[in-house]
Amino acid sequence: MKAKRWIVRVLLGAIVPVAILVVWHVASVGSVVVPSIGAVLEVLAHPLRDPPALDSTSLASGALISVLRVVCGFGLAAVTAIPIGLLVGRSRGAMDMLSPTMAAAMVISPIAWIPVAIIAFGLSSPATALYGDEHWRFGLLDQLRFAIVAVIWLGAFFPIALNAAGGAKRVREAHIEAARVLGATRRQVLAKVILPSAAPSIVTGLRVGGGIAWRVIIAAEIFPGTRGGLGYMIATAHEQASYEYAFASIIVIGAIGLVLDGMLRLAEHRVGRWQPKER
Amino acid sequence: MARTRTTAAALFLAGVAAAVLTGCQGEPPAKTDAPSIKLGHVGHDHHLALYVAALEGGRFKNDFGIYLEEVKAKEVYDLVDGERTLARLNFIKVGGGSRMPAAMSRGEIEVGLGGVVPVAKFADGGQPLKILCPLQTDGDMLVMQKDSPVADWASFVKAAKEGEKPLTIGYKAPVAIAKLVFERALVAEGIAYGYDATDPKARVILVNFGSEASPIPMMETRAIDGFVMNQPGVAVAVAKGLGKVVSELRDLPPKGKWINHPCCCICATEQTLQAHRDAVKGLLKVILLATQLINTNQDLAIDCATRWTKYDLAVEKDSVPTITYLAEPTDSWVTGMKTWAEMAKDVELFTGKYADASPEAFVDDLLDLTLVREAARELREKGLLKAS
Predict the structure, then answer these.
(1) Residues of A in contact with B216 (CB under 8 A)
(2) For chain A, what is the domain count?
(3) Do B26 and B97 meet the contact criterion of CB atoms below 8 Å apart?
(4) Does residue A181 fall inside a structural domain?
(5) ipTM of predicted complex
(6) Is the pLDDT score of A124 beyond 70?
(7) Which member of B40, B241, B309 has the closest CB to residue A55?
(8) B contact set with A (CB within 8 A)
(9) C-alpha torsion angle, residues B194, B198, B203, B205 (rounded to 10)
(10) What span, in angstroms and rounded, lies between the C-alpha atoms of B86 and B285?
(11) Regarding beta strands B243-248 and B140-145, do their DSSP bridges make them parallel or antiparallel, or are they unpaired?
(12) Residues from chain B contacting residue A119 (CB–CB below 8 Å)
């Protein structure tokens, strides 16, 4: 019975991808813009090969660069947004001070900040910060341009902070009071009561923020001087009419996004499993 | 137990990240006392002179003694004259249209290769920069759908004026050279144009397909009837079987006005010119010699274009011969710059210091051709540069 349900679930889940493949195949016939499925699979089958007809690094290298940028921007967003969100959720003064700004900034597309990030950070990177201008073009560290990381950070920060604030606000006062009566310090109340209670909301915020970070990277990788990353590959493939690379990059972005979302979903499940289901 | 596992996993991941980040740094290049100059370029074959110099460093070293020595392919080159390193050049791909002068205004690049009109527009706004020499002229075309009845400019004019529907023509950027020439040609022919598809008077609707983006998707879906663009975008559309060249924009009316129209140039900030005059002159020498090589050895030029831009050989074979590569300013090029000044005035492109400037005052202020003329003279004295 369980196996049958599993098969049904897999079949249902496969309907849309199969339909997409059929539409893709039909659209690719006689098209310059839509590459054949075979051409895209050929690119995906050789991820380490530098594209022979595209001014870009290999697919694997591009994916690594994009992942590193997202990890840095997203990690920075998590580290900064969770404490600020908890503060906003638990402090009336902080809420009055920060929530209007956060609510307004939340609706601005991170892409809109790209020119501001370029002006603020230029072409600087950890490589320039560590080794100075002489080394500014070298190594993977240089690919982590501060401007790109800043835009990703901006994209992920607000959903994480707002969800953390919401989670912290919803912590039952009775639980906090009980902990205090039992002699818990402020730090213990934060670690043992507020954080666990707010954790499901925080992880939901991380999921939303992670998704936005992935969407932002595509636009952010057209920064001046960028020569790698999946977003760069898509832009260059479009410019040079080598669309099989654009499609392959899109598939890789989707696959990595799926893995990222799966990991965060698992975390969401784990931190939320002790909580009673709302009815 | 669970906490120990989590800590161990976190430490492992941190170790892997540290290993990746430090291990992939690679060998840093040998240090140089020469100044470091950030050089912006677009990456297409209008800037072929730079790519020929970068790819053919060995040939330049043997034949001319002044050359670019590769430090890191496509990114870092030392500019060497004899035994002396004049500068370390950091190549930065910045994108076309306004992106190059915009990057210069933000201080990201000090020397740039790009279109003369965007450069002039930024200078008009107060950016302290000078155009040092041309890179090429022409290479802009009107392309129509492959099955379009329009076959030449005359039939385009007829179709625009008498056709049932207005013609929809794409362009890549508001101040793109191709778009500006095309607009003036429409005015010269008395063809009303606009940007709004519902404009009842417009016989030509102009559609922006985005800087550096390709017109290919819009051509395939027939969202546009044709487009005006520089090479190699034109050659790509032709190679993909989606379009045909109807006219080179140099041949459009007013008759003779657009022949050898200035397109891309080399510019630099005034600060760079003051601080690194020798290095910039050395770069201009290399560009002069590379341009000479392009014009005398087209096979090599096409090969270099393919190797650098990674466009198909067929595309570059089609593209490179349609571009006039020119590094030493000629009288007709300077006249072309004056034509731009007049045109810019007509369309009120300039709102700053060139708004009321005469064409002569415009070129006097924007161009600094002393270095390139000095460089050309010195090369001629050594017998390296042939008479222009």
Answers:
(1) 32-33, 241
(2) 1
(3) no
(4) yes
(5) 0.73
(6) yes
(7) B309
(8) 17, 20-21, 24-26, 28-29, 31, 36, 38, 40, 43, 72, 74-76, 90, 92-95, 99, 103, 106-109, 212-214, 216-217, 220-221, 236, 240-242, 308-312
(9) 50
(10) 12
(11) antiparallel
(12) 106
Tokens 């179709």 sit at which residue? B159
B12-27, pLDDT tens digit by residue?
A: 555 555 445 444 445 5
Choose, out of A34, A57, A64, A138, the residue to mutate when testing the contact with B (most B CBs < 10 Å): A138
Whether A41 is covered by a domain: the verdict is no
Which domains, from first to last, does chain B contain?
Answer: 36-138+263-381 (3.40.190.10), 140-251 (3.40.190.10)
pLDDT, position B30: 59
**Which tokens belong to B139?**
């290479």
- Structural domain boundaries enclosing A102: 59-272
Indicate the residue type of B386.
K
Q: Which sign does the torsion angle of CA A40, A43, A44, A45 carry?
A: positive
User: What integer pLDDT is reported at residue B283 of this predicted model?
Assistant: 98
> Quick check: is A197 in a domain?
yes
Chain B residues in contact with A123 (beta carbon < 8 A): 38, 92, 108
Q: What is the CATH number of the domain that holds A119?
A: 1.10.3720.10
pLDDT confidence of residue B142: 96
Tell me which residue in B40, B76, B109 faces A137 most closely, judged by beta carbons.
B76
- Dump pLDDT digits (tens) for B73-120: 888 999 999 999 999 999 998 877 788 998 898 888 999 999 998 899
> Would you tell me how many other CB atoms lie within 10 Å of the CB of residue B2?
6
pLDDT band at A126; cut points 50, 70, 90: confident
Closest chain B C-alpha to A1 CA, distance in angstroms = 34
Contacts of B117 (CB under 8 A, 6+ apart): B175, B176, B177, B180, B340, B344, B349
B106/A238 Cβ within 8 A: no
> Is A46 contained in some domain?
no
Question: Between vectors from CA B14 to CA B11 and to CA B17, what angle results, nearest 5°?
Answer: 150
Q: What number is the average pLDDT over the span B233-257? A: 92
Burial class (CB in 10 A: 0-12, 13-18, 19+), A9: exposed
Residue A83 distance to chain B (closest CA, Å): 20
β-partners of residue B226 are B144, B169
Q: Is the predicted pLDDT of residue A186 greater than 80, yes or no? A: yes
* Cross-chain CB nearest to B95 (options A140, A224, A227): A224
Q: From CA B285, how far away is CA B290, in angstroms rounded?
A: 9
Question: Do B243 and B151 form a contact (C-beta atoms < 8 A)?
Answer: no
